[in-house]
């Protein structure tokens, strides 16, 4: 993407402030959208104020706020993204070297997709007041909270990591505001906030999904988990074992755990493989160097032993172009899949081609998808849409937000997490979704 054009487009609407109004009912959108997708309906009229708050007989998920119906004529949304404007423009209003730093791009691209979603919804008649915050600015999240800048917010959307995730989560819990964490694949140590939605699923959820897929996909299999002797990969292996233990199936096969390192030879690895059945190999390496190191060792055994290799969600960006990887069947898990052929994806692609003269990145698609999904939920069902999340129609990808209970006997969710995980096979030209 031409990110010089992107940042100029961003700045035209943001005016280089820490607190930035990106979309509201009192101004025109920052860029012309050639009409909302025609398949989308306009929002239902808001109820009269006196009908707006009703207590349900029993609150969903044992959270009293979820039992309320709170609908408004206009909604306040706080959007957080790591834009690093203070760093990029520390000395002037021009981009140094006329090239955007790479660390800026994910947050900028997520914002660009979200902005398109907000502009589109606004043109459909959604009455929104959206304030964009640079989560990496000098004005910290804690200062915004201290100054009560977020007190009137109805929904928080964020592409944030810690410490901002924890700060926003604590605030959202105390103020009973739904907070959607859009990109961080971790709960950040949060264990007591039913108002938090984690859309980028945690590694434990990926482990559960891979375990279930492997156990179900092959009638006879030899499951071998290869991990290195690190605390992190040891913990991942324990998650796979826990998933195996709780799986209720008489046909499940035990997982054999193997510790490897750079000195491990292909011959030593082959001792754990069988020639008469599928070898489902799980690799816990998240880093590209570690993943490719083991794949090279496994490639030597591929001619003798039937291999199906399952990696981590970080493998989505790994390119296996080297000759030694040719013919290997490699899979990874992901909470997000987009073949870019659906209506909304074409709509986003057409817009980016016109405005930016480039294709949208995956982060831009995610920003559009998540923003459109939750703002529509908010406008259709009110501030406490929590009981309707599982029934909302998908935009680009499927979500399956379920309550997570981290403490035994807990009646109130620790948070909600997207449990929809795709198993995807890496291909030469495009990756292929294996499950629904």
UniProtKB/TrEMBL annotation:
Transmembrane segments: none annotated. Pfam families: Peripla_BP_6. Keywords: Signal. The keyword Signal applies. Residues 111-378 form the Leucine-binding protein domain. Coiled coil: none annotated. The keyword Flavoprotein does not apply. It comes from the Bacteria. Residues 27-55 are annotated as: Disordered. Belongs to the leucine-binding protein family. This is ABC-type branched-chain amino acid transport system, substrate-binding protein. The lineage of its organism: Bacteria, Pseudomonadati, Bacteroidota, Chitinophagia, Chitinophagales.
């Amino acid at each position: 993407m031409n990110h010089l054009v992107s940042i100029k487009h961003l700045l035209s609407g943001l005016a280089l402030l820490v607190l930035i109004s990106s979309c509201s009912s009192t101004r025109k959108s920052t860029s012309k959208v050639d009409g909302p997708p025609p398949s989308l309906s306009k929002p239902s009229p808001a109820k009269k104020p006196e009908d707006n708050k009703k207590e349900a007989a029993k609150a969903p998920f044992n959270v009293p706020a979820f039992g309320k119906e709170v609908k408004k004529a206009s909604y306040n949304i706080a959007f957080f993204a790591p834009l690093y404007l203070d760093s990029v423009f520390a000395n002037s209003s021009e981009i140094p070297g006329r090239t955007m730093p790479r660390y800026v791009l994910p947050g900028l691209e997520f914002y660009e997709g979200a902005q398109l979603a907000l502009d589109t919804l606004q043109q459909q008649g959604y009455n929104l007041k959206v304030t964009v915050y640079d989560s990496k600015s000098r004005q910290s999240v804690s200062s915004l909270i201290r100054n009560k800048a977020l007190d009137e917010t109805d929904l928080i959307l964020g592409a944030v990591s810690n410490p901002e995730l924890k700060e926003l989560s604590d605030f959202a819990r105390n103020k009973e505001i739904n907070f959607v964490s859009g990109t961080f694949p971790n709960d950040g140590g949060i264990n007591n906030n039913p108002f938090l939605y984690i859309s980028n699923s945690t590694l434990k959820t990926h482990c559960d999904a891979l375990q279930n897929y492997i156990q179900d996909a092959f009638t006879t299999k030899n499951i071998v988990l290869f991990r290195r002797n690190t605390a992190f990969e040891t913990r991942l292996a324990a998650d796979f074992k826990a998933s195996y233990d709780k799986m209720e199936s008489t046909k499940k096969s035990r997982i054999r755990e193997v510790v490897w390192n750079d000195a491990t030879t292909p011959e030593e690895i082959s001792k754990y493989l069988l020639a008469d059945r599928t070898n489902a190999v799980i690799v816990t390496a998240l880093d590209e160097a570690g993943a490719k190191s083991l794949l090279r060792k496994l490639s030597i055994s591929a001619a003798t032993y039937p291999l199906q290799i399952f990696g981590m969600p970080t493998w989505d960006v790994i390119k296996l172009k080297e000759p030694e990887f040719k013919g290997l069947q490699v899979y990874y898990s992901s909470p997000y899949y987009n073949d870019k052929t659906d209506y909304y994806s074409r709509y986003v692609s057409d817009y980016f081609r016109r405005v930016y003269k480039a294709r949208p990145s995956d982060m831009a698609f995610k920003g559009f998808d998540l923003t459109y999904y939750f703002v529509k939920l908010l406008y259709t069902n009110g501030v406490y849409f929590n009981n309707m999340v599982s029934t909302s129609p998908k935009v680009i990808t499927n979500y399956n937000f379920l309550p997570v209970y981290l403490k035994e006997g807990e009646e109130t969710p620790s948070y909600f997490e997207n449990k929809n995980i795709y198993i995807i096979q890496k291909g030469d030209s495009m990756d292929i979704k294996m499950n629904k």
